[in-house]
Each structure stands twice: as C-alpha cells, then as structure tokens.
Amino acid sequence: MGINIAIDGPAGAGKSTIARRVAKELSFLYVDTGAMYRAIAYYCIQKGLSGSDGDRIGQQIQEAQVTISHAEGEQMVFLNSENVTSFLRSEEVSHMASVVSAIPQVRRHLLALQQSLAANHNVVMDGRDIGTTILPNAQLKIFLTANPATRAKRRYQELINKGVSCSEEEILKEMTERDERDSGREASPLCQAEDAVLVDTSDLSIDEVTERIIALYREKMKRS
C-alpha cells in the first residue's frame, strides 16, 4: 500500500500548485484528478454533448478511456491514447468539467484508476472528494481554501499569463456558480472530511503552504 496525501478544496485555492510542490519535495507521485474530469469534459465537447444531457453522457463515456503517465514528475493525460494535456485548461473545458463531474456514471468511470494509483504508489492527490470518497483512509488529509476574491484573482492572473483574454469579474461569477454546483451535487459533493486539516491560503505564499503541509505530514508519520 502506498502512502497517501489527500488535498481537497474549491477551485482557485491553489490545490494543483501546492500538491505538485509537496509531491516533488517528498518524491511522491502527483495525481491531478481534476485533469481526468477535464479529459472527460474535453471528450464531451468534441462529441458535441450538452452538459444538460447527463444520461447520454453517462452512456457515451464508456468509450472515453482516460489514462495518465508521468515524465520527469509531470502528469500527462491521455484520452483514447491521445495526449490531451495541452487542451484541458480552457474556460470551456473548466465549465464542462464542473458539470460532468456531478454525473455519478462519470465519477464511477474514473474511481478505479484513481484508487489503483494510490494503492500502488506514494501519492499526493488533489480534487474535491479525495479525502471523503477516493482516499478515505489517506494518512494525511488537507482541505485548502481561500476567499472567493483571492481565488478569482489567482485564476485571472494565471489566464492572463497564458495570453488568454478574460474578465476577473466573470471569473468570480463563474467560480461562485461552480462552488455551488460542486458543494450541492448528489455524487460526492465538495466538503471537508472530518479528519482533514483546514488550511486557508488567502494570505499565505506557495512556499508557506507547502512547508506547512510537509510539516503536518512529518508529524503525522512520527505518530503512526
């Protein structure tokens, strides 16, 4: 069995950045589950499937085989053997990912892969239901959060740095709507696990958050 660190939280809290840094510091495998849902979202967009047609998506995703591999510590996502990593960060894919992730058939489709990775490797896995559903027995669970304005500003800056034209106001609106969808969905809603440590990143640097999680991990392992 691998050693598992589960990091959950809403969009823009810094989960992916922090999880990647923690994994690198500990020489663990980084698993971005959100990228898997984005791959399914990308598949649905390419197939012209509407986010409102959950039953049809649930049927057709059986043809969408998502796998991941790692090169030099970086995760690459493959959809039916095609590397789709570079297509997964658009706002269109982000929106669709939030919609399809609420569909129970989609979550079941990806669950086995996620749990297999955690069983066979030391992993840092981030998402929205890692500590509650995917890895309920993880040795350390973290719930990262930040105030909505801070999260929207981070996402805006990320997109601007990539040359994407966007509105911070629109990002905040979309992020608020996404929070509501993620927290209110029936299938594995976003929530803090009872045994997760809450870390508010609003006023913390990436280095500070990374150091805190590593310290929590080391303390946890000393006691086990």
Q: How are the strands of the largest sheet arranged?
A: 2-6-1-7-8
Topology, number of strands: 8
The number of helical runs is 9
Number of domains: 1
What can you see in these coordinates?
The mean pLDDT is 91. The protein has 224 residues and is an alpha/beta fold. It has 9 helices and 8 strands. The strands form 2 sheets. Strands 2-6-1-7-8 form a 5-stranded parallel beta sheet, sandwiched between helices. A 3-stranded antiparallel beta sheet has the order 3-4-5. 51% of the residues lie in helices and 17% in strands. The chain has a single domain, classed as P-loop containing nucleotide triphosphate hydrolases (Rossmann fold, 3-Layer(aba) Sandwich), CATH 3.40.50. α2 runs antiparallel to α5.
Secondary structure: elements and pairs:
Elements: E1 4-8, H1 15-26, E2 29-32, H2 33-46, H3 54-60, E3 66-71, E4 74-79, E5 82-83, H4 91-100, H5 104-120, E6 123-127, H6 130-134, E7 140-145, H7 148-161, H8 168-184, E8 197-200, H9 206-223
Parallel strand pairs: 1-6, 1-7, 2-6, 7-8
Antiparallel strand pairs: 3-4, 4-5
Helix pairs in contact: 1-9, 2-4, 2-5, 7-8
Defining key terms:
224 residues; alpha/beta; Rossmann fold; three-stranded antiparallel β-sheet
Write a brief caption for the model.
With 224 residues, the chain is of the alpha/beta class. The protein has nine helices and eight strands.
